[in-house]
Design a protein that fits this description.
The chain is an all-alpha fold and about 550 residues long. The protein has helices at about 20-25, 35-45, 70-85, 90-105, 110-115, 125-135, 140-150, 160-170, 175-185, 195-205, 210-220, 225-235, 240-250, 255-265, 270-285, 290-305, 305-320, 325-335, 340-355, 360-365, 365-375, 380-390, 400-410, 415-425, 435-445, 450-460, 465-475, 480-490, 500-510, 515-530, 535-545; strands spanning about 1-5, 10. Helix 17 packs antiparallel against helix 18 (about 325-335).
């Protein structure tokens, strides 16, 4: 199969890139949209890999991104004091305004005190307070406030209901959301497009796709957001063909629609479809925003098309967007994945020399550099970076720590691996399955099977990844009987093995010459778990037979 995209012929058997007409098509057509809060929210959603990248756009409390929160709170306190002094605080609209300031600047204690002091709270008062907690994702408190509002006899409006539906999606409370929907219908509340979109978005995020599809079909008026939400629902459910059909039918296609289609295709493993969509965006001269550039660079990273990445970087440079934190992090990640570490380091240095050492950039820019060093066989450089991060008190995320543990395993530095493990326990990072398996792998490769057993024993929730890591650890140390015992424990506790698990067991049998046991587990693959043996399984069996 051959692919024609961005002026390049693609072969599924041999992916290659040739100079294209990308420059000619994009030149003069990409106009970078100015930084806006809604765009920043989109970018944050993208990096967090949220299940749905469509945001409901209603009048709501938006929290300040200012680095000087104390100054913001001082302003709220001053305005409050002035209102108390001149008596205007008795006016409900003034009280609501001050309340919105406290909520916006996250001063929930003062906001709560003021709420209690307002004698005749109306629906706007309650909606301001509730939406504040919804924005902070404190769903439990928001729902309790909603109940208090109802007990007080205050009737919710469309904005209140939109906030509460969003709350239900945060806690994945399908029944409560359905109850609110039913209550809206029974009360005869007018369903405008905005409220219908809130309900549609709620059903999509709670994965109640049948309800979402039915509601979309019944909607008399659909706007851009309606189409984006339902397309996102199909992407989330993995129905790529239907999502593409709806995308073609949609009369409203803004940059958010295209960005969401790109990310949806990539999340479902259809990177080449995403590349075709990117080509279409360029062809129709659609204006790219920062999120589009970040997605395009992520696509380049997954397909390892360095030349295309360089062309995109050139356009970003000409548009003066290199100093944007999100775009710079995407560039760093792209160059690391494509093996261009020196270029990634140059962008990294430029970020920090340009006073972009924001709290989030500590994670997003450092992590790709550390993992990039490891992926490109430069484990010692990764460890140097890690030491510097600790010395400078940078925030370290689980991904970076997992990369460092892998680096220790690659070059066999047991003591540093132990120190990293102790550091993780000291700062209170939660050990997820991948991190625990990395620790087990590191200890076994560094020759300390006892430490691997200790880490395995301290793991409360053991999934397939952790069990398999322990089986491999035993196999590596020639303890086939122990590897088989761990495998049997895994089966007994109800965890289903996969192909990788069986490679570990067969490897253990092969190393110790356990022919009968090896053949038993080889047959078990297909007979009990319907797993087709692959080349690595046959290799283990052949090796076992030769011994």
């Amino acid at each position: 199969m051959r692919w024609s995209c961005l002026g390049t012929k693609w072969s599924s058997s041999n992916i290659s890139w040739k100079p294209s007409c990308f420059d000619a098509l994009v030149s003069g057509s990409i106009n970078l949209i100015s930084t806006q809060k809604c765009e920043i929210c989109q970018l944050q959603s993208y990096y967090e890999y949220n299940s749905s990248s469509f945001a409901i756009e209603y009048p709501k409390i938006t929290f300040s991104n200012s680095q000087n929160d104390s100054a913001d709170n001082t302003k709220a306190n001053i305005d409050h004091a002035k209102a108390v002094k001149d008596g205007s605080i008795q006016l409900l609209q003034v009280a609501n305004y001050v309340l919105s300031l406290y909520v916006r600047f996250r001063n929930t204690n003062q906001a709560n005190k003021l709420l209690e002091e307002i004698p005749n709270r109306n629906v706007r008062t309650w909606t301001i307070f509730i939406s504040g907690f919804v924005q902070k994702r404190e769903a439990g408190l928001a729902l309790e406030l909603f109940r208090s509002m109802q007990r007080e006899g205050v009737y919710p409006n469309q904005f209140t209901l939109s906030s509460i539906l969003k709350c239900c999606s945060y806690v994945n409370d399908v029944q409560m959301g359905k109850g609110i929907h039913g209550w809206i219908l029974r009360r005869g509340i007018e369903l405008d497009t905005a409220l219908e979109n809130s309900i549609l978005d709620y059903y999509s995020k709670c994965q109640a796709f049948d309800y979402a599809k039915r509601l979309f079909e019944l909607m008399t008026e659909k706007d851009t957001l309606s189409w984006n939400i339902i397309i996102g629902a199909y992407l989330q459910s993995g129905d790529i063909e239907k999502s593409l059909d709806l995308f073609e039918l949609s009369p409203f296609k803004d940059i958010t629609s295209w960005n969401s289609m790109l990310t949806g295709q990539m999340r479902n493993g259809f990177e080449r479809n995403a590349l075709e969509l990117l080509y279409e965006m360029v062809k129709i001269k659609l204006e790219f925003n920062r999120l589009t550039f970040s997605i395009a660079l992520a696509l380049v990273s997954s397909l390892l098309i360095l030349e295309l990445g360089r062309q995109i970087h050139g356009h970003i440079f000409r548009l003066g967007t290199c100093n944007n934190e999100f775009v710079s992090n995407s560039l760093i990640n792209m160059y690391c994945k494509c093996g261009e570490m020196e270029k990634a380091l140059a962008i990294f240095r430029n970020m920090h020399l340009g006073n972009l050492r924001m709290q989030n950039s500590n994670i997003f820019s450092w992590s790709p550099i550390v993992s990039g060093f490891i992926q490109n066989g430069r484990s010692e450089d990764a460890l140097k970076f890690f030491r510097f991060m600790i010395h400078e008190r940078f925030e370290v995320d689980n991904f970076t720590l997992t990369s460092i543990v892998s680096a220790c395993a690659n070059i066999g530095i047991l003591e540093l691996g132990r120190q990293t493990h102790a550091y993780i326990q000291k700062i209170g990072h939660k050990l997820d399955s991948f991190f625990c398996s990395s620790l087990i792998d590191m200890y076994s490769k560094c020759g300390s099977l006892d430490d691997a057993w200790l880490t395995f024993g301290e793991t409360n929730k053991r999934n397939n990844v952790i069990w398999t890591s322990m089986i491999y650890a035993c196999a590596l140390h020639g303890q086939a009987k122990e590897a088989i015992r761990v495998f049997e424990m895994m089966i007994h506790e109800g965890t289903t093995p996969n192909e990788v698990t069986f490679v570990g067991v067969l490897t253990a049998c092969s190393h110790s010459g356990l022919l009968d046991e090896g053949l038993k587990y080889f047959r078990l693959m297909k007979e009990a778990y319907s797993l087709e043996p692959k080349a690595e399984h046959f290799t283990c069996v052949l090796d076992l037979g030769s011994k």
